[in-house]
Inverse folding.
């Protein structure tokens, strides 16, 4: 039977993960309504524009979430399915770069036919690497057949995303993929020695475009660009300052009134800090910590090596994106556009994130209880 249901096992889902995922999805929708109302009224003459779309997107995301929960995750460990999926991903990225049909924002082409190929690529690299690292597990300690082979796949996808241009997203995909290479058990000397070459290349790419250089300069000295990126960071920090300990109250943030760009998306964490204060921001961080801990627990308890890699990759995606988004709003890293998983306004991103978390829950359903040490995965 090609598609197997999860109902044939006796182990239950990880309910803690389920509760926190659904809770963050609901909370995110509430915050999109609060943070996006002013901009929606100005741009679309409808203060409910963003929340209406978010509810539609969340509905589709819940469907994807439930489907992924019910389908046996081992179905994705299929050569034909992964080759087709990777082929579609590459073709969509190439089409976006070569056609005139893609929608552009601030000079970057991100959407075709209403979806973001880069968001699909982000998930696809996790699923494909889990499949490939499992398939070629016997070669993982070899430099060419193991490390270079998988690095080439990762770099290929990252390069296509980079050409949109989408530097931040491409770096997130690279970080997620490279972390999976490490977790797969590849030799540390291969990973570390290559970074001597990879890091300078990343720095050169980052400095190649003037707007990226400006972002880095602004990060070190926001006063150099008080009307642009420096303004964004300053206003984001003001949002946290205005919130104090308890917050100004839901819907009461002033920073969303055109002081912050994308308050419903990239800078939504700042609005949360403004409206719910330090306590609310800390509680949100703790919610992500719970999701991270449950995700890695599911990974180490996975029934097989493939499940371990897949669960780890999905969890890393949530962790890395949430950390960088929060660091951006706090002025700890150069400003760039990255969504806060499950909370920021989004379509493709939200749907793909919920699908991945549904797969993670299915792995928890299939898992047997292992200790955290001496876990042996069956090939």
């Amino acid at each position: 039977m090609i598609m197997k249901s999860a109902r044939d096992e006796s182990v239950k889902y990880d309910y803690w993960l389920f509760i926190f995922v659904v809770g963050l999805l609901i909370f995110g929708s509430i915050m999109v309504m609060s943070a996006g109302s002013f901009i929606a009224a100005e741009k679309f003459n409808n203060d409910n524009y963003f929340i209406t779309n978010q509810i539609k997107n969340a509905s589709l995301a819940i469907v994807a979430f439930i489907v992924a929960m019910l389908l046996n995750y081992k179905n994705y460990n299929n050569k034909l399915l992964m080759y087709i999926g990777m082929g579609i991903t590459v073709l969509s990225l190439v089409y976006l770069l070569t056609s005139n049909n893609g929608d552009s924002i601030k000079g970057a082409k991100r959407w075709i036919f209403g979806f973001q190929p880069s968001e699909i690529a982000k998930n696809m690299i996790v699923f494909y690497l889990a499949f490939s690292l499992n398939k070629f597990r016997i070669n993982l300690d070899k430099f060419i057949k193991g490390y270079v082979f998988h690095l080439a796949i990762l770099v290929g996808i990252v390069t296509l995303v980079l050409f949109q241009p989408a530097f931040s997203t491409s770096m997130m995909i690279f970080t997620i993929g490279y972390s999976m290479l490490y977790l797969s058990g590849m030799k540390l000397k291969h990973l570390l020695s290559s970074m001597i070459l990879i890091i300078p290349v990343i720095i050169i790419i980052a400095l190649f475009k003037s707007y990226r250089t400006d972002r880095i300069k602004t990060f070190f000295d926001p006063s150099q660009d008080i009307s642009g990126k420096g303004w964004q960071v300053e206003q984001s920090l003001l949002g946290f300052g205005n919130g104090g300990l308890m917050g100004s109250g839901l819907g009461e943030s002033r920073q969303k009134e055109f002081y912050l760009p994308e308050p419903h998306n990239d800078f939504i964490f700042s609005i949360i800090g403004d409206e719910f204060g330090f306590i609310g921001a800390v509680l949100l961080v703790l919610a992500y910590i719970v999701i991270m801990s449950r995700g890695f627990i599911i990974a180490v308890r996975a029934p097989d090596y493939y499940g371990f890699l897949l669960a780890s990759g999905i969890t890393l995606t949530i962790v890395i994106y949430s950390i960088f988004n929060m660091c951006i709003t706090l002025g700890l890293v150069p400003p760039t556009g990255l969504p806060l998983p499950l909370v920021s306004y989004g379509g493709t991103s939200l749907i793909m994130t919920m699908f991945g978390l549904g797969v993670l829950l299915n792995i928890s359903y299939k898992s047997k209880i292992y200790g955290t040490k001496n876990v042996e995965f069956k090939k």
Summary: The radius of gyration is 21 Å. The CA atoms of residues 291 and 297 lie 10 Å apart. Residues 6-366 form one domain. The beta strands are 103-105, 108-111.
